[in-house]
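TICKET: design request
STATUS: open
ATTACHED STRUCTURE:
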């Protein structure tokens, strides 16, 4: 009897709480606190054991405590972030900048409050509102830290037209690229705050530590950079805490329609997300990712994270790279489709392998993607070529080389230098040179150095520049050290701008 009474009480209680429950957007959500600034234990789970020491070796890396609240309409995001920034430069800084990419990517990011170390400060939006400028009343000394708190509201475009639809809410899929204020890089050029060129990747960012709390409608399947370390749900909402570290960015995609497959490879798992009717494509993407992560881990450096996610989105690009994950054009997952006579499966495999390659070149080894796009894109095309050789032998390699050559052919094999900023290439040139000609530079370099020396060099380049920013000159220096040769002529032929 006792049992039924308690059931009755429970039922009455449930009824009462239903009657008094607040509207869904204000529903009480679980409180998942951020750890203390110095506590990096939550970040350990995102790195394989071999790399966990890095958490202690970057004491001055920026730390983000980021809150993203996703509205039911999948268009409006309200957010707050606290960012601990340490001056790692050799001069005191009297200002800092954050990128506000949604103001470049076709919609809007509004800033409603900015505090520095607990006090309201003046700020301004500059460069067509694509950056937030915060003058510092007291300059930030070398090695000193401050905490910037920013309240922001992001509106997500409902069209794909701007920059391949990397930030968009369409077809029930939310793609949330660069949707929070991102601290700019300060380097020998000063603050890097230029408005990006429309045809290339839009970010140049330092490695940071990300703890991100996502509050979203309960039925959304969330796919994000890093690892989910806590997850709680209420009737209408869910809150998940993600840890990604070190990482250059935080990306999230979400849809009610995703189903996912997962495979465990020991040190890491791979997840592949697509709508249920595209599961065969999700499996094929998984297989290509598994084979390429294995190959690149052996050749360059082990894959650092415990998770890699593939997510299908309506992006107008074939694929886009993000830390620990990639967004791949959803049409490629339909294995019965073809594009101009080429089966979707051909595009799916080469795109997944290319984006996996970026986990080493763009992410683990960073570069200025606006000023030196060849460093990640041309090299990633070259290692995709190596994948085809490894996986399918000389015929497979020749097939991929033919597609690279076809790209370069679009500008009649013009010998346009690889080392230009994205914005200095004409529209046709950018793809033909950076994605076509660029791979053949690395072939020429391997020939000059000898295969074996080249392989050792590329592994050393990856490992010595890991977590850092490489440059056209640092790649040359490391290569010259290995071949004990002068690469001036080769660089003059392929890389350097014509005087
Ligand atoms: Zn790429």
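STATUS: resolved
RESOLUTION: sequence designed for all positions
ATTACHED SEQUENCE:
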């Amino acid at each position: 009897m006792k049992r039924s009474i308690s059931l009755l009480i429970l039922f009455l209680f449930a009824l009462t709480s239903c009657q008094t429950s607040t509207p869904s957007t204000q529903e009480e959500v679980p409180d998942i606190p951020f750890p203390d600034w110095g506590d990096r234990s939550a970040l350990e789970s995102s790195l394989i054991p071999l790399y966990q020491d890095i958490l202690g070796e970057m004491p001055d890396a920026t730390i983000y405590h980021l809150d993203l609240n996703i509205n039911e309409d999948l268009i409006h995001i309200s957010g707050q972030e606290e960012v601990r920034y340490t001056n790692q430069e050799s001069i005191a800084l009297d200002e800092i900048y954050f990128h506000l990419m949604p103001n470049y990517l076709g919609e809007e990011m509004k800033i409603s409050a900015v505090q520095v170390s607990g006090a309201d400060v003046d700020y301004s939006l500059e460069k067509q509102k694509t950056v937030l400028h915060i003058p510092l009343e007291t300059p930030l000394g070398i090695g000193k830290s401050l905490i910037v708190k920013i309240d922001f509201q992001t509106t997500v475009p409902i069209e794909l037209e701007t920059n391949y639809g990397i930030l968009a809410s369409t077809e029930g899929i939310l793609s949330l690229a660069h949707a929070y204020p991102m601290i700019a890089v300060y380097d020998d050029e000063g603050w890097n705050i230029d408005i990006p060129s429309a045809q290339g990747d839009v970010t140049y960012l330092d490695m940071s530590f990300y703890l991100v709390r996502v509050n979203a409608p309960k039925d959304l399947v969330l796919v994000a950079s890093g690892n989910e370390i806590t997850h709680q749900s209420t009737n209408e909402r869910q809150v998940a805490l993600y840890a990604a570290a070190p990482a250059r960015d935080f990306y999230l995609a979400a849809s009610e329609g995703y189903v996912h497959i997962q495979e465990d490879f020991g040190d890491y798992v791979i997840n592949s997300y697509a709508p249920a009717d595209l599961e065969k494509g999700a499996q094929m993407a998984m297989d290509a990712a598994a084979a390429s992560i294995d190959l690149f881990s052996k050749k360059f450096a082990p894959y650092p994270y415990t998770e890699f996610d593939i997510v299908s989105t309506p992006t107008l690009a074939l694929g886009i790279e993000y830390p620990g994950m990639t967004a791949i054009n959803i049409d490629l997952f339909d294995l019965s489709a073809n594009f101009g006579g080429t089966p979707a499966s051909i595009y799916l495999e080469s795109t997944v392998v290319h984006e996996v390659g970026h986990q080493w070149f763009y992410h683990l080894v960073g570069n200025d993607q606006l000023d030196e796009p060849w460093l990640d894109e041309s090299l990633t095309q070259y290692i995709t070529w190596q994948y085809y050789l490894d996986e399918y032998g000389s015929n497979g390699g020749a097939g991929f080389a033919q597609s690279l050559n076809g790209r370069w052919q679009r500008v009649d094999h013009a010998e346009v230098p690889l080392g230009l900023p994205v914005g200095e290439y004409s529209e046709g040139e950018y793809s033909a040179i950076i994605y076509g000609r660029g791979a053949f530079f690395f072939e020429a370099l391997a020939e000059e150095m000898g295969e074996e020396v080249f392989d050792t060099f590329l592994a050393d380049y990856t490992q010595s520049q890991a977590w850092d920013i490489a440059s056209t000159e640092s790649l040359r220096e490391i290569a010259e050290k290995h071949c004990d040769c002068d690469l001036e002529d080769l660089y003059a032929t392929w890389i350097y701008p014509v005087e």
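CLOSING REMARK: The two ends are 92 Å apart (CA to CA). The longest strand covers residues 76-86.
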